[in-house]
């Protein structure tokens, strides 16, 4: 079964377009903060290129590129592995590229790479763009030449390439040649409608390969073949693969980059990610799902919760003898686990590694096993620590006896009332003791969580003025057991920043406010611990800058 894969090209690109094409998914909305968080996870996965969006056309994307120029909200954000790419169109019909404001937005985005989409299907040129085939070629030449002269690397995405090739192969190939001659480093063939099958893709990529320009592939999943089509293109000589994490994208999605890279690494034996990065794929896929708030598919290849799950019984006893009899790879290669029953992602080794990352010594196997059990139990109840590092650290500290008692909460309550049905007031009361002084503080807000936040902040401020710097930047709710209606368990994730670092905490409950309170409480506790607050001292030291990563 091995030995059929082609030889890896000298240069190979893994190009992620989650933040642009993936964000087209129905119901998916990404803020600038979300995009930064996802970019950080993608960078950790080790993709070569991150397409950040379409500056100039989409205000949110413009803001994302602007934010990256200054290192994100805390000034600490840097891409370690990946090169940033900005998406854009070829210049407008009848205009010079140098005069087109959208071309300028790509040029000035701060991204070293521009990925330009060009029409390559003659009917789209004439009917959608309403121009001549010659003008479309001139638009490609002019835009690529201009951006190259301005010092940007340029990739060209040929939109509707495969449909175009079927209708007018000579013109589709002329577009590829034109882009390459103008200076495009890679010409990417796109199955924009997603209607192709692997053998068609392979034939067309091989034909385009005759031109002698480095080719890329961009597939949508409308035939359920996006990953297979991507691999067929690679087999036919493509050296650049585009996709999105977890296959996000409009309609049925894009090629799932997780499956693509896992196949290339594990089936082809090609190192396309930095060493060791693939073993983080499960964690990163799930962490990104927390940010997008799209429930991860348990049946996702490689990283799904069920990808290596086995029902107990006859089968299970054989698995105990030799697990490889029933699985296509060792799940640890992608950071997943074989499961016999309902379980979770946490393995002892993961916990030990994660604990060390956070600066805790978990080399004691018994201790690590005990913490692993706790994490499993918590995850079974709905907690998630993949995206909520701060709550995980608090759990470790609790277990290791390293949790300072900075404040003690005695009670809290929330009260919402409506006056004659038009105005709704929410008031929260929090009773706590900090540095030996009891506080009973009322906070108002535009909702229960906002009111609780104000109350706890005001109650802590006399003892710990640093809380004034804490800002809740994201609040996310997920219903866990869908189908139970209002009885369902809910999970709340809260992201907080002090302007220097950003942290995420998690709360779970059958009551939305209870779950929110738990996440809120942990957000303040974690922030105070990391601002080096002491239960005794009156003045807290400023927190040391912390490496980027949200
Ligand atoms: Zn696309």
TrEMBL record:
<keyword id="KW-0412">Isoleucine biosynthesis</keyword>
<dbReference type="Pfam" id="PF00682">
    <property type="entry name" value="HMGL-like"/>
</dbReference>
<dbReference type="InterPro" id="IPR013709">
    <property type="entry name" value="2-isopropylmalate_synth_dimer"/>
</dbReference>
<dbReference type="InterPro" id="IPR002034">
    <property type="entry name" value="AIPM/Hcit_synth_CS"/>
</dbReference>
<keyword id="KW-0100">Branched-chain amino acid biosynthesis</keyword>
<comment type="similarity">
    <text>Belongs to the alpha-IPM synthase/homocitrate synthase family.</text>
</comment>
<comment type="pathway">
    <text>Amino-acid biosynthesis; L-isoleucine biosynthesis; 2-oxobutanoate from pyruvate: step 1/3.</text>
</comment>
<dbReference type="Pfam" id="PF08502">
    <property type="entry name" value="LeuA_dimer"/>
</dbReference>
<dbReference type="InterPro" id="IPR013785">
    <property type="entry name" value="Aldolase_TIM"/>
</dbReference>
<keyword id="KW-0028">Amino-acid biosynthesis</keyword>
<dbReference type="InterPro" id="IPR054691">
    <property type="entry name" value="LeuA/HCS_post-cat"/>
</dbReference>
<dbReference type="InterPro" id="IPR000891">
    <property type="entry name" value="PYR_CT"/>
</dbReference>
<keyword id="KW-0808">Transferase</keyword>
<dbReference type="InterPro" id="IPR005675">
    <property type="entry name" value="Citramal_synthase"/>
</dbReference>
<dbReference type="InterPro" id="IPR036230">
    <property type="entry name" value="LeuA_allosteric_dom_sf"/>
</dbReference>
<keyword id="KW-0012">Acyltransferase</keyword>
<protein>
    <recommendedName>
        <fullName>Citramalate synthase</fullName>
        <ecNumber>2.3.3.21</ecNumber>
    </recommendedName>
</protein>
<feature type="domain" description="Pyruvate carboxyltransferase">
    <location>
        <begin position="12"/>
        <end position="283"/>
    </location>
</feature>
<dbReference type="GO" id="GO:0003852">
    <property type="term" value="F:2-isopropylmalate synthase activity"/>
</dbReference>
<dbReference type="Pfam" id="PF22617">
    <property type="entry name" value="HCS_D2"/>
</dbReference>
């Amino acid at each position: 079964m091995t030995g059929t894969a082609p030889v890896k090209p000298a240069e190979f690109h893994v190009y992620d377009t989650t933040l642009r094409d993936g964000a087209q998914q129905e119901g998916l909305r990404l803020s600038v903060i979300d995009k930064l968080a996802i970019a950080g996870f993608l960078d950790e996965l080790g993709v070569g290129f991150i397409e950040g969006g379409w500056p100039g056309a989409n205000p949110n994307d413009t803001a994302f590129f602007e934010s990256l120029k200054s290192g994100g909200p805390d000034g600490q954000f840097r891409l370690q592995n990946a090169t940033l790419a900005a998406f854009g169109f070829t210049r407008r019909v009848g205009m010079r590229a140098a005069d087109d404001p959208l071309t300028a937005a790509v040029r000035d985005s701060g991204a070293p790479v521009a990925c330009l989409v060009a029409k390559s299907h003659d009917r789209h040129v004439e009917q959608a763009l309403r121009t001549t085939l010659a003008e479309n070629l001139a638009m490609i030449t002019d835009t690529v030449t201009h951006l190259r002269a301005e010092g940007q690397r340029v990739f060209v995405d040929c939109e509707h390439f495969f449909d175009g090739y079927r209708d007018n192969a000579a013109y589709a190939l002329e577009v590829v040649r034109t882009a390459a001659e103008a200076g495009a480093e890679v010409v990417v063939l796109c199955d924009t409608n997603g209607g192709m099958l692997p053998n068609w893709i392979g034939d067309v990529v091989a034909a385009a390969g005759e031109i002698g320009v480095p080719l890329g592939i961009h597939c949508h999943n409308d035939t359920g073949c996006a990953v297979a089509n991507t691999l067929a293109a690679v087999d036919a000589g493509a050296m650049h693969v585009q996709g999105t994490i977890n296959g996000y994208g409009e309609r049925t999605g894009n090629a799932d980059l997780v499956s693509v890279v896992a196949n290339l690494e594990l089936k082809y034996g090609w190192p396309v990610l930095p060493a060791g990065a693939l073993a983080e794929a499960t964690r990163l896929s799930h962490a990104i799902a927390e940010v997008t708030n799209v429930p991860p598919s348990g049946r996702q290849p490689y990283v799904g919760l069920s990808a290596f799950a086995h029902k107990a019984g006859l089968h299970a006893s054989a698995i105990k003898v030799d697990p490889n009899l029933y699985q296509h790879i060792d799940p640890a290669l992608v950071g997943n686990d074989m499961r016999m029953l309902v379980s979770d992602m946490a393995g002892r080794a993961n916990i030990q590694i994660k604990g060390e990352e956070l600066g805790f010594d978990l080399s004691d196997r018994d201790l690590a096993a005990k913490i692993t059990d706790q994490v499993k139990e918590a995850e079974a109840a709905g907690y998630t620590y993949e995206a909520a590092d701060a709550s995980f650290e608090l759990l470790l500290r609790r277990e290791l006896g390293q949790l300072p008692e900075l404040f003690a909460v005695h009670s809290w309550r929330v009260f919402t009332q409506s006056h004659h049905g038009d105005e709704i007031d929410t008031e929260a009361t929090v009773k706590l003791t900090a540095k030996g002084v009891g506080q009973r503080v009322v906070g108002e807000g535009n909702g229960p969580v906002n009111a609780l936040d104000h109350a706890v902040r005001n109650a802590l401020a006399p003892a710990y003025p640093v809380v004034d710097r804490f800002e809740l930047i994201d609040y996310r709710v997920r219903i866990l057991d869908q189908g139970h209606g209002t009885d369902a368990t809910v999970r709340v994730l809260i992201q907080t920043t002090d302007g220097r670092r950003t942290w995420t905490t998690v709360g779970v409950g059958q009551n939305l406010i209870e779950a929110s309170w738990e996440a809120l409480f942990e957000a303040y506790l974690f922030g105070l611990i990391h601002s080096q607050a002491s239960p005794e001292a009156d003045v807290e030291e400023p927190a040391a800058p912390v490496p980027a990563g949200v």
